[in-house]
Amino acid sequence: MIENDKTESWLQANFYVAILVLLVYVFMPFFWSSWATAHCEEDAYYYFAIARNLADGKGITYNGEWTNGFQPLWLFFLSPIFLFKSSLIFPLKLALLVGGLFFLLGGFMVYRSGLLLFSEKSLARFSAILWLTSVFAFEQSVNGLETGLYFFCLSLLVYVYLKRIRLNENPGLRDWVYLGLLSGICFLARIDVCLILIPLWIAGGWHSYRADKIGARALCAENVETKVSRTTRKNLYFIFIGFLVFLALALPWVFYNLWLWANPLPVSALFAKLQFWQKMTFKWRAVMSIKALLRLPIFYPFSFYTFFRHWNRLNFILLVIGSGIWLVLFIFDRKLREKVLRLPLISFIFAGAFLTLGYLIPITAHWFIPRYLSPLILLLSFYIAIFWHHYLRKVPVLFGIICACLVFVLVYLDFYGVMYKQMNQKYYMNFYRLENIEWIKKNLPENAPIGCFQSGIYHYYLTPEGYTVYNLDGKMSISAYKALKGNYLGSYIRDKGIVYVIDWPQYLQPFFRNYKMERDKDYRILATLGSDSLAEMLYNNRE
Fold this sequence. Notes:
Number of strands: 7
Distance between the termini: 82 Å
Strand order of the largest sheet: 4-3-5-7-6
Oligomer: single chain
Order of helices and strands: HHHEEHHHHHHHHHHHHHHHHEHEHHEHEE
């Protein structure tokens, strides 16, 4: 009992320290503008541009063209920010704050779910600590994208599923309606959550059926099969109503996509398949997926790959060793194995498998694919909590030191990572592209349209100055997507009157090569800006 009290005290102290550190972190952009610039991903600027247009009454448009290259829930969270005519940097700061706060709320929901799963409060608290100190999950929540909101919605879904369905002996209509409501909200947060929802709903329905059958036998009903049949029909009705609630939230987004371009998926979910600069084989995607899965375990706080990517091989080896140790202990430690298998989370394991296969097979993987698989961190936090707690619960001081190390690594990687970016700005996209924008303002005329494969940050900052910036990679622009798919992007650029194309050489060189353009004849490089090249399109002797 004394050991449990000491363990709980250590965990409680580290839990509150982690929350305090994260709160300081998410409010830092309001005291240091470069902090916000260092964090916002290129894709976040697409959200800001569309949200600004929506707030200005221009509809869901990007550069005058209706678009669906976004996740709707996050977009509608951002839009009200632009009703206030503030500086261009203020929405970035607020987006980082909101994403970080949603991440913290996700930690609270992990704790609540842990209380449902474990009889020991310390296990629930440690699960939350593992989540809060996951550098990768937190990093993805404070990048201006929808990830922090998605994490919170998913953690809420896990809690509702466990409390209302999986651990409920007799789920009723209200329980399934709650699950349908949360499923729909998660769908609006990220459409690929369907890969998680499918096994979740199947497992919930199966659990409900088994509970009815066991309940009928326990009551010694004279006709068990008739009793089960009646309750099954009733439960199917409940499930159907819950599913209708899900559809009521999900279908408007699907119908909007169908109306816009006769496809249920947003263009941003498909654009990567058409990149002529990024040819990928199944073998390459498989290797990337394996690396992604190895990066996701809660061992990740000890990984320096987040900020020091040249340590990739060492990082990979260490994660293989760490995951291997966990697997060996699971196989040979019977008590640990029993604790793990007792968790009612088998449906989430299948959900994780669905999610992984969904990105491994039909969708072209990116180098940042771990962001797409990051929902698995939520599941792993419960399993890894059992692993650490099983071996360290009798040594409270050591347990506390482990937690303190997790918090320290969180502080070190997050705060030092930002400082490292500040001291080496020329190596980081956002900083040098802001310098590029200043160069463009001084040297290029406003009436000369600009095309970018990665157009987010350029569009966000240059459009208010009177420039026209087109998206060329198809992530935002359906017309550009169709041009890429039809292999007539060169004609598309000419038809739009685009005079300058700016982007990374790995984007531009394959583009020029694909359309057999010759330098100084069909185009010329005006300047090399940071890691970008600015090309003026001449179109001499071009059809």
